[in-house]
Write a structure and sequence with these properties.
homotetramer; Thiol Ester Dehydrase, Chain A; elongated
Chain lengths: 137, 137, 137, 137
């Protein structure tokens, strides 16, 4: 697996007065995309936290192509864009499931920290689990 | 079908600094519960809106029993509690899927309006679709 | 002071596809109302948490009268409805500042707990600070 | 005025299980920053919409330096980074008011559209109002 794909319906609360999904909702969907990625490699992020580590967000970017609307079935495709000793980047493509149209694309950069905020190496057992899924360039 | 059941994972964005799901997130889950209910009876709420009607919320109540946590699989059970000519009440039970524990229960009362805010009778084709699913008392 | 009043503008993200404020946003505004209340009595809730206590939410209710819209100035009035040894109830009135119209009213019930979830008495120094502000019946 | 500055307290709902403000909340704060900017130049965005125009979001980026926490007073500084005939870019600096620390910086790119999604020139009366506030390079 290089791409983890999760689907869900647009919630009404995620829409705004333009009648479309609010742009901040996609940032939450990105996060759900990487949560799903971690579940798919059998290393759920909740387990990362139980080990005392966090993937804190240091950067996020999104480009908006087409709007999603209430009740549409959405597909979020999540990949690892880059894996380094102390951090990683997830890359996202949000599509409308009905016609596969690309709605939004983006990425999030993360640094591995302990709860005190100190930057750490990604623990080896996790790093080994992530490595096979890095996109080949 | 009297109960529509939908499942999803807790999103990280739905947690708060207590380490548990924020209490307002359940109100959004209630809404997703009734969206799912409408999809299950083949009358999605997006179709209600395309017909020019809205089920505006006039009251909502929630009782919180146990907290949900990030990544847990959640099950929302949605029923119609009451169906009247100009409105209806949905009843919700939010459970942790792993052990079926009741986390939160609540209801939302809705009135059928047109976009101008005028109260309307629920259109007959929708009312007939809803009626068989009303909880027997 | 019996009533703590806070004002803010409706954020675009708080609206939904009906063109009005989403009903779950008011639950967040209630919370901001009680945060403001606690700041006004010089016992901010952040201090309560630093002491190791939480006012966990056990019940919330809202009745919706009129919708708020993007950019409107909102006023939230927060009172203590009931104060008991191990919990309290906040009561809220959300108004449109321009004409004082009542938009939404509601309450939230809280129980005082420690982080392990054990119910506790409200610590005396906090209880004494809250008591003068309880609504007389 | 080149910089519009707005302040508010961190809401509890904006925190997450790491005990800090969730990264998507800053995207909403950016939006509140530009809402405030538009109010400051006496051309509130609600008026833009009443004229039939929207500044749809085509790109957003945020870099996270330090976390905000519940109840902290936040200051959002908003500038126009670029103004073009059919769109504009807002630039944001989110600071902790207590010590002026830079927490998050970012930008959002917008295109002017009508409700049908057609790209439009920014209407002249608005463009003239915006132009004096563009950052000099």
């Amino acid at each position: 697996m290089t791409v983890a794909t999760t689907t869900f319906h647009v919630r009404y609360a995620e829409t705004d007065a333009m009648g479309i999904v609010h742009h901040a909702a996609y940032i939450v969907w990105f996060e759900e995309g990487r949560s799903h990625f971690m579940r798919q490699i059998n290393f759920p992020y909740s387990q990362v936290e139980r080990m005392g580590y966090y993937f804190t967000v240091v950067e996020v970017k999104a480009r908006y192509h087409q709007p999603a609307r209430y009740d549409e079935l959405i597909r979020v495709e999540t990949r690892i864009g880059e894996l380094r000793s102390r951090g990683l980047t997830f890359v996202y493509h949000v599509r409308r499931a009905a016609d596969n149209a690309l709605l939004v694309e983006g990425f999030s950069k993360h640094v591995c920290i302990r709860h005190d905020g100190q930057v750490q190496r990604i623990p080896p057992e996790l790093w080994e689990r992530l490595r096979p899924h890095v996109m080949s360039s």
